[in-house]
């Protein structure tokens, strides 16, 4: 693709990077490469830099652009809404706000058998904050939560308190309400001598042991009360490296939660909207959450809209009255019109069928790649949420340096396909920052998946030579 460098207002990359270095806060960006990459255009599964080089994007803005760049149907919905009702204060109502809430609530009723309501906000972390208010309100002010090691829920103060990474809290004072972090069954890095299922059961049993006596620290058997109000879960860990637990893990965990009256909050911000082949990733595990938090792909990245669904007892107007939370831009009509179109489109295009098929094809390619590169210690996937763990040549020791080199080479745009230059956009995740977390467009073709595997092969070969 040709980028018009003579267009009015065009500023070249060198000037933009100089201005960014001088005038932008680095606190709201992540500079994975030096210099940071500048992109000019996006289309389908590709982004294009200033030179017009295509980059196959295998992370799609952290799974926010599930339906591809420049999706015509969604772009048209946005354009139509701009001409009808582009903005309205959030104390007033409009049609798509009500339609979207109804659509999500009826979908939850069908799947979970529960009445519930939908509450909107403007970002994933903000929706997590709203869920914390709902949980604390429902538990008479209890402010302590359970969460997982490796879990990520955002970087606001409340969300940081239930995110396991200390580095997000370190510079901001003491977090007296920090969650208790429990082990997440990480199949590839399970204890020696245990099967994945045995490790999963062990994690559940370790959690259940907290309730054996009052001296285990969280339970008062005389009043049948737990000190902790809810367990925040990512059904598949996102930033933690797309770790997929054994199928029965959440059923075992939910039995313990239900026994002791602890709410389950499913964080679907990264895995929602058919990333795993289901609208909500928790659907893959056969349990019913009390609250579902969502964001990102709700608008395909075109509008900052997020929200949550909660069962009726937790969120009805008697217990959670008007003004309990608020944002000026929540439930804005551009976002809700997009969200409504996303859900309609998802069911009409049957992503529940197509995503697992494409995911199986991608996973097969990754397994073939693993046979040719002993540095790929583990591959796994559920739908189009896939992982490849990069290790040393022993196939187990984390190799962050090699993956960093891969990312740099991919963003340099010097790979080759059909005699032309091409780049590859990867995301780094995992507990040791050595995991390629793959979240391609749900509309990626089988041919593009084959191209992705070929480019990963080329990329890994180059990176190993460069690191030797």
Describe the model.
This is 4-aminobutyrate aminotransferase. It comes from Rhodanobacter glycinis. Its cofactor is pyridoxal 5'-phosphate. Keywords: Aminotransferase, Pyridoxal phosphate, Transferase. The chain is an alpha/beta fold. The protein has 2 domains: 12-69 and 349-465, Aspartate Aminotransferase, domain 1 (Alpha-Beta Complex); 84-346, Type I PLP-dependent aspartate aminotransferase-like (Major domain) (Aspartate Aminotransferase, domain 2). 36% of the residues lie in helices and 17% in strands. The protein contains 13 helices and 18 strands. It has a 7-stranded mixed sheet with strand order 4-12-11-10-9-5-6, with helices on both faces. The protein has a 5-stranded mixed sheet with strand order 1-2-3-16-15, sandwiched between helices. A 4-stranded antiparallel sheet has the order 13-14-18-17. β2 and β3 form a beta hairpin. The mean pLDDT is 96.
Helices and strands, with pairings:
Elements: H1 13-23, E1 39-43, E2 46-49, E3 54-57, H2 60-63, H3 72-84, H4 95-112, E4 116-121, H5 124-138, E5 144-148, H6 157-161, E6 180-182, H7 196-208, E7 219-220, E8 225-226, E9 228-233, H8 249-259, E10 263-267, E11 291-294, E12 306-311, H9 312-315, H10 333-348, H11 351-372, E13 376-382, E14 385-390, H12 400-412, E15 415-417, E16 420-425, E17 428-429, E18 435-438, H13 446-467
Parallel strand pairs: 3-16, 5-6, 5-9, 9-10, 10-11
Antiparallel strand pairs: 1-2, 2-3, 4-12, 7-8, 11-12, 13-14, 14-18, 15-16, 17-18
Helix pairs in contact: 3-10, 4-10, 7-8, 11-13, 12-13
Pfam family, one: Aminotran_3
Family: Belongs to the class-III pyridoxal-phosphate-dependent aminotransferase family.
Cofactor: pyridoxal 5'-phosphate
